[in-house]
Amino acid sequence: MKNIILLWPFLLLACSGQSSEQTPETRRSDSSAGSLTWEAPAGWVEESPSSPMRKAQFSLPRAENDTEDGSVVLFHFPGGGSAQANLQRWYGQFKQPDGRSSADVADIKQSTVNGLKQTTVELTGTFLFKQNMMSQNATEKPNFKMLAAVIETNSGPWFVKCVGPEKTVGKWQSSFDEFLATLKM
């Protein structure tokens, strides 16, 4: 009996399927309209998508002294409006301390990666967090950052959105760029 008790922690570890070494895994979308693949960077914590529009969802562990984690969400809704309309909606989720429009201060870049046109956006400010899209009230979260991308594919646009405290998102920014570089059809 004593030997079984001593082996218990090792048995739990062996049965958990967890590895102490984190390696990126190739993920494939579940969209019947197209198959986008990606590799999740090491350190990103995969979560179950909280809505059917979300094809993947990750938590980014917070930077030291930040009060919450960041998040990365991959969306695909081909009939969900144009890429520009979605970007405008996302700009509206941020307020600038000097009163300027978030669309005016967003850093926007365009590129082609793996044959897919990508429009990327970087924006900081006060995030107007809503519990759900239909909510009228927003909680202001100052010093937040958004990294976003629109990926144009034959099956319609895919959207990648990273939001969190500015320091946390900054900590993960290079892995976000690496993630975008792995997107393929």
Can you describe what's shown?
The protein has four helices and ten strands. It is an alpha+beta fold and 185 residues long. It has a single domain (24-182), classed as 3-Layer(aba) Sandwich (Protein Transport Mog1p, Chain A). Strands 3, 4, 5, 6, 7, 8, 9 and 10 form an eight-stranded antiparallel sheet that branches. Strand 9 and strand 10 form a beta hairpin. The protein is globular and about 40 Å long.
Helix content: 10-25%
**Second CATH tier, the architecture:** 3-Layer(aba) Sandwich
Unreliable segments (pLDDT under 50, ≥5 consecutive)?
1-24, 28-33
Estimate the global geometry from the Cα principal axes.
globular
Strand content: 35-45%
What is the CATH homologous superfamily assignment? Mog1/PsbP, alpha/beta/alpha sandwich
How many helix segments? 4
Give the biggest beta sheet.
Answer: 8 strands, antiparallel
Query: What structural class do you assign from the helix and strand content?
Result: alpha+beta
Query: Could you say what the CATH topology is called?
Result: Protein Transport Mog1p, Chain A
User: Radius of gyration in whole Å, from Cα?
Assistant: 19 Å
Mean pLDDT: 84
Distance between the termini: 54 Å
Order of helices and strands: HEEEEEHEHEEEEH
> Could you name the CATH class?
Alpha Beta
List the helices and strands and how they pair.
Elements: H1 2-16, E1 26-28, E2 37-39, E3 45-47, E4 54-60, E5 70-76, H2 83-91, E6 94-95, H3 102-105, E7 107-113, E8 116-129, E9 139-152, E10 158-165, H4 166-182
Antiparallel strand pairs: 1-2, 3-4, 4-5, 5-10, 6-8, 7-8, 8-9, 9-10
